[in-house]
BMP family ABC transporter substrate-binding protein (Herbidospora solisilvae), 340 residues
Amino acid sequence: MLLAAAACGGGDTTEGAPSAAPADGASSAPAASGVKVGLAYDIGGRGDQSFNDSAAAGLDKAVAELGVEINELEAGNGEAESAKEERLRLLASGGFNPVIAVGFAYSASVAKVAAEFPDVKFAIVDDEANKLPNVSNLVFAEEQGSFLVGAAAALKSTKGNVGFVGGVEVPLIKKFQAGFEAGAKAVKPDIKIQAKYLTQPPDFSGFGDPAKGKTAAEGMFDAGADVVYQAAGGSGAGVFEAAKAAGGMAIGVDSDQAKTADPTVADVIITSMLKKVDVAVFDFIKSFTTNSVVAGSKVYDLKAGGVDYSTTGGKVDDIKAQLDEYKAKISSGEITVPKE
């Protein structure tokens, strides 16, 4: 998933030569390993309180525990493909190896730049398309985690009416919707599910427009929903605002947003679908330091601990046993969650 406006912790949005400045709070860590990691964020970068921040957490852990040196660069809203290519090219040509691209929007750029730098190891989060021998594809079973929060929404709903707000209508986000709807219907087969996408590709602003997220969620609450799940990156902040104003409930995504969202709205977040991009990023960097990087796809599913639901705030404690039962059935294969 993608994001909203944010501050960058160690790169900049200009297309100049990359610096090797570490992220905030990581400058004192020793670069003992001699490994220089380059990371290119999706729209918004650090501070989005969601997808990018999860990647940043994995990077920070690598600095603290592995002593790597890092450089981070951010994407711009509405930028051309050439800008993404140049960002990756700057990192690879600047001596950063490995290079990590955060988000499926980098798919074509990784394919092109990785071919130009066959001795550099690349990883891309949320894309399986690339088959080059120096590219690792870090992907997640978003539909499985979304099933769990869909079940939570149905169990918590008193109106039998829930909503889903997607940032941009692309196959990746439709996985979130499919899992959410399957989980809700597993609990209440006749539940009403409202769904809306904020933008259509190639317009990806739906991942960084809280005002649009707020408007979409307001419409759902007005139409009778009492729980809304957002898979909309930075736009999700608007969904939380709408839930607060309506006296409704919301479900976060990617990170544990009851911890990261604005404290004035965090109390409406009953759970979040955890997508552990931090784990994938750290694992990839660690494998590089041990010369054990494997090309191709690595799927972080529920069984592997790659997705889950959060319990911060105790708002789902009363239904935890039911959610964990679904979790066990998905992990064992008894329940197969649809992806579309």
Remarks:
- The mean pLDDT is 90.
